[in-house]
Specification:
The structure is a homodimer of 412-residue chains. By secondary structure, chain A is an alpha/beta fold. Chain A has two domains: 288 residues, Aminopeptidase (3-Layer(aba) Sandwich); 115 residues, Alpha-Beta Plaits (2-Layer Sandwich), CATH 3.30.70.360. The first copy, chain A, contains eleven helices and 15 strands. In chain A, the strands form three sheets. In chain A, strands 1, 2, 3, 4, 5, 6, 13, 14 and 15 form a nine-stranded mixed β-sheet that branches. In chain A, helix 3 crosses helix 11, helix 7 runs antiparallel to helix 8 and helix 9 crosses helix 11. At the A-B interface, strand 8, helix 7, strand 9, strand 10 and strand 11 of A face strand 8, helix 7, strand 9, strand 10 and strand 11 of B.
């Protein structure tokens, strides 16, 4: 049975981890940062050195392919990939594994002249983690991006996407050209670490993903009144922060209870204005995120949370402004891709289980235009989006070999 | 009966309000900012134009005096004053009124040659609002400043006091020289807006302050674990922000209940780390402020809050780091100064009531070295530390005339 070169895969993971490396381990490599730009240049060099064709599209996605005519409508490609951007203080495998393993599979295929009827390509989608816009690169590729809104996209700190793209030598007005036709892609499969504890706890090496959660992000701004923090009687204060704090605690409990543990929620961004110790906060602003594998559940939970926000605001004498930030629908994975992963694992003598992805992935965008799926390997302790994110070397090797088997099946 | 010139007082208030003026009203004029430096230069000019001696001490305090030898041990001065720095988006009277009314009283005294046995002086204490350190200027003057710690003082945004002092042409190493001997000051009285609703609601024009609250500021950092906000099971998350949110709500309720409404509390500074929507917050950091007019009450409340912080942290699986930021003791006002204010009001045909100050003031530092007191005028709607802070013109005129009567009594 064909095998990838694990030594080469490890070397590339190690080299990629240098870009944005932190002193204590882990990486900070947000899309379009100088560290990211260096990593992209390195990746293009590795793709070429592997004997593959390499190119970067107008959205900033990097591709490597067995055939320069990949994505031509008359010869649809089997596509794999993931992303090389990270969250701040993230790990070295989230995204990186899928790109480097995909590259290694294609490298092994051309090197060993493994038979394939369709062209194969690997993608490094830009800004999966959403510094400027979640899953940006795959949205552009799949035609899901509202290009008219590109000028409005900005990071939490206010930095605008158009400025960083221009700085990197890209023309933001040409992002729409990254879109390809449906006929150009035959199927998509993405290898990723699970980022949760289920595979490790079940002792199963390969997870076949059935569905990817939908994610809804909403900005809630509770607006009260700035007042002197000494002289204003307590009962007259209209504190925007305390309202945001109460909502955050109760929304968490509501989502856990009403979803029966199937949905998750987080408040990761909090800002208080004016932000000085001797002024009652006029404004408490949060970004509330919810994830569920089922569209109806996600909608019901969000309606309940919105009603909760209004109740909390009313009782605390403040107003609340609710602005949707982003919303993705839960995506089902294609049965043909699930079967290819399961068959490849079986041939390698590896057990599988089905699960859903609690994280968003570029695969959910690809699922709107082609038959798409994912496979997971165990994450140590379920840790991810952390500097101590880790998967065992043998888990990585197994995952890469199952990806190779899957790609050979899909391109046969 | 001697009177101040209200036209002159109004002109000076108007002119001072230009420095750091905001488009929609109000002022942002933190200590050592360029706006503050311009306001100080303007004030020195006004003092000189009023026929008074003017100087700036090594801490940055501005003085005007009827006599260049004020603060000499053998001829103790009667001192008045307040501050010309503001909170961000503050009003035009908090601090400014006491400085400009004090200047006007001295101007009237020298212009009208009103009899006084002791020299009189007016001070504009620097950084009352505590961008770098609360009540900084009056602490330096009264010898309450730990000068060894000056190099550590910094604003919330990290800007260091030594850097801004140097930029303004001051030598931070000489701050200790701002201290004067106890024998140099005979008494201190400060006019201020109430910043609360009690005088307005009681329909009383002059408040005689009996005591000034003590203020305790503490930084609490709840430290959990950064985790992926999708894939980490809800029950395993250790969310630093939710712990900080729960503490903030419960500490507020605890202080209100256990103080019988006499103490107040605020959480005005909140920071969440790493601060992105798809990562469970590893850290929630707040600055918790408490104020009480009684030292025993302040101490008991703080002990209860500290125990609360530990309970919340334990139950949520996080740790809490508690670092005192600053603490002032409640200060009683001198009976002789209270009597002088009450007598001056009575002579002007104005009713008085006694109250305590729920805000900290430079007078509390002066109270450690001389007989000190304060008088308040009504604040419209009790508003303060807001751009719509306001007191009626007649309230201001009455307050300034009662200040004049008080100063003439104290300097007789």
């Amino acid at each position: 049975m064909a095998q990838i070169s694990f030594e080469r895969l490890k070397r590339r993971l190690r080299e990629l981890a240098r870009f944005g490396a932190l002193g204590g381990g882990g990486v900070t490599r947000p899309a379009w940062s100088p560290q990211y730009e260096e990593a992209r240049a390195w990746l293009v060099g590795e793709i070429k050195a592997a004997g593959l064709d390499a190119w970067v599209d107008p959205a900033g996605n990097v591709f490597g392919a067995t055939d320069i005519s990949a994505f031509a409508d008359d010869r649809p490609a089997v596509l794999t990939g993931s992303h090389i951007d990270t969250v701040p203080e993230g790990g070295t495998l989230d995204g990186a594994l899928g790109v480097i393993a995909g590259l290694e599979c294609l490298h092994a295929i051309v090197e060993q002249r493994l038979p394939h009827a369709r062209p194969l390509a690997v993608a490094a989608w830009i800004d999966e983690e959403g510094r400027y816009g979640s899953l940006f690169g795959s949205r552009a590729f799949c035609g899901l991006l509202d290009t008219a809104k590109v000028p409005e996209l900005a990071a939490v700190d206010g930095e605008r996407l158009v400025d960083v793209m221009t700085r990197a030598g890209f023309d933001p007005a040409r992002v729409g050209e990254a879109r390809v036709n449906r006929a150009a892609v035959s199927s998509y499969v993405e290898l990723h670490i699970e980022q949760g504890p289920r595979l490790e706890e079940a002792g199963v090496p390969i997870g076949v993903v059935e569905a990817i959660v939908g994610i809804r992000r909403t900005r809630l701004t509770f607006v009260g009144q700035a007042d002197h923090a000494g002289t204003t009687p307590m009962e007259r204060r209209r504190d925007g922060f305390l309202a945001a704090a109460e909502y955050s605690i109760k929304a968490r409990d509501l989502v856990v209870k009403k979803s029966g543990g199937r949905a998750v929620t987080n408040v990761g961004v909090v800002r208080v204005h004016p932000g000085v110790s001797n002024i009652v906060p006029a404004r408490g602003e949060i970004i509330h995120e919810m994830r569920a594998p089922d569209p109806g559940m996600l909608e019901r939970l969000w309606k309940d949370c919105r009603a909760l926000a209004r109740r909390v605001a009313r009782r605390r004498g403040v107003t609340v402004d609710v602005v949707p930030q982003s919303a993705t629908s839960p995506a089902a994975c294609a049965p043909r891709v699930q079967a290819a992963v399961a068959d490849a694992a079986r041939d390698a003598g590896l057990a599988t289980t089905t699960l859903y992805s609690a994280a968003g992935h570029d695969a959910q965008n690809l699922a709107t235009m082609t038959e798409a799926g994912m496979l997971f390997i165990p994450s140590s302790g379920g840790r991810s989006h952390r500097i101590d994110e880790w998967s065992a070397p043998e888990a990585i090797e197994r995952g890469a070999n199952v990806l190779l088997g899957t790609l050979l099946r899909l391109s046969a």
